[in-house]
Design brief:
By secondary structure, this protein is mainly α. It has one domain. Keywords: Membrane, Transmembrane, Transmembrane helix.
Length: 70
Amino acid sequence: MAQHSKQEAQKIRHELTVQLLEFFLLDLVLLAASQVVSALILRFAAWGCSLYCLFLFGELLLQIWTNRNV
């Protein structure tokens, strides 16, 4: 009986260890995915800011050009 309960305890401990490892692996995968998504969002935001700055610079050049030709 004691041997049976010891085996049962080992089995439960093994199952808990496996579940804990699966949880940590899932957590790492989700963390990596969130880092990738954050990096993509920041990259697109930087691209958007750069394009907007180029647009403003183009407008400024256009205003300078039109004021010069008037």
